[in-house]
Amino acid sequence: MNVIDYIDKYGDYSFKKKPLNEIDKLIFGLLSYVHYDGTVSYNSKDKRTVKQVAREFFKKNSKSDIRKNITAVRGSIKILNAIQDKKRYKDLLLYNDIYITDEEQQFSALCIEIEPKLVYVSFEGTDQQISGWEEDGKMIYKFPVKAQKQAIKYLNKHFTFKNCKIIVGGHSKGGNLALVSAMYSNFIVRRKIVQIYSYDGPGLRRKQIISKRYKKAEDKLRHIIPNYSIVGLLLRHTNNYTVVKSRKMGIMAHDAQSWQVDGDDFVKVKLSISSKVLDHGILTWLDNYNEQERKEFVKELFEIFKKHNVTSLLQFVEEPRLLIKLMKDTPNMDPIVKEMVKELVEILKEYSKQAVVTTISKSLGVKNPEMLKLR
Question: What is the spatial distance between Cα 76 and Cα 32, in angstroms, rounded to a whole number?
Fold first, then answer.
């Protein structure tokens, strides 16, 4: 089973009959990827049901319009379609929808009222906007980036004077925004937050991960990653995460609809060797360079991406040598940046190699994949 199968199986169960669980919270975290374009109001007094929103959304957007979106957005639209007539979800209230994008940021959030005194705040991950990907890159040398500031502002604005409990969550960058907003919102809002969900969301910089604010938030945090995680292991994090089984490998395991479900819970497994290799490699890479060098790396790299009309960084994980090709087309690249790119490519190649080793091991029935060596 996957998330859609779960919706089909349990969609007619009320939350009283089957209590709210982590799969429901993932579904809510994915709904913020949908660009509602006015179908959901940015007004806490104008709340609309999932059923009302879905009906209007699918009237406005044709199948060809939907196909133009990236995988994460298309998948979330599929979820909206699946839940619109289900007893469990159709009467949930949506409001306070916001979408901001410009040359420096990409931010989206949505409120989902589960019951009058319980609200899920859903933060969107990175969509097709190159500004969002560049902003993700800035996280390696800067805190807070604009989207993180927007997330903190969003919680303070809408919940300082609202009497309710709050769950904050999101997938990918949305998970990072959920954590950061929960750490840095004002003390009144922080007291109302009961849970923080980061579904394969990247971590924090060293200063934030060792801070008192993180320590206070950590007890509420649930960091859930797939067994072939890449995004969820970026930057720094504690090892207090839950690993779930994905039916896909590599970057495609980031797709939450590939995560396997058994009944009303995720299938739990151990983290793959390839992801452990990646985790170690990324931390070593971060430690090798200072903030100014990381800043120049991001600045120069994204200038190259814009020049070559690159719109998604997922391409570089799927095809590591693509970075090398772009470097050859940029002979005047700063030598340190060039060295940083080469090291990053090697880390990604090692990740891919280990993933292949694991696949071969399973097919041959080898219990210890480290026994196999690829050259």
Answer: 8
Phi, psi of 226 (to 5 degrees): -80, 165
Distance (Å, whole) CA 212 – CA 296? 30
CA distances in angstroms from 192 to 97, 162, 164, 166, 325, listed in the order given: 20, 9, 7, 6, 50
Say whether 284 sits in a helix, a strand or coil.
Answer: helix
The C-alpha R_g of the chain, in whole angstroms, comes to 21
Cα→Cα distances 6→2, 48, 86, 114, 172, Å: 6, 24, 12, 18, 21
3 state DSSP class of 257: helix
Q: What is the pTM of this model?
A: 0.91
- DSSP string of 335-356, one letter each residue: HHHHHHHHHHHHHHHHHHHHHH
Contact present, 227 and 271 (Cβ < 8 Å)? yes
Tell me: the pLDDT tens digits for 116-162?
A: 999 999 999 986 667 778 888 899 999 999 999 999 999 999 999 99
The token duo for 280 is 């170690």
Tell me what percent of the chain is helix, strand and coil, each rounded to the nearest 5. 50, 15, 35
State the alpha helices, DSSP H only, in the chain. 3-10, 22-30, 50-60, 63-67, 71-83, 130-138, 146-159, 173-184, 187-192, 206-209, 212-218, 273-288, 291-307, 314-318, 321-328, 335-364
Span 278-328, pLDDT tens digits:
999 999 999 999 999 999 999 988 888 877 767 665 566 566 677 777 777
Cα separation, 320 vs 346, in Å, equals 8
Residue with tokens 């696949």: 359
Which residue type occupies 55? R
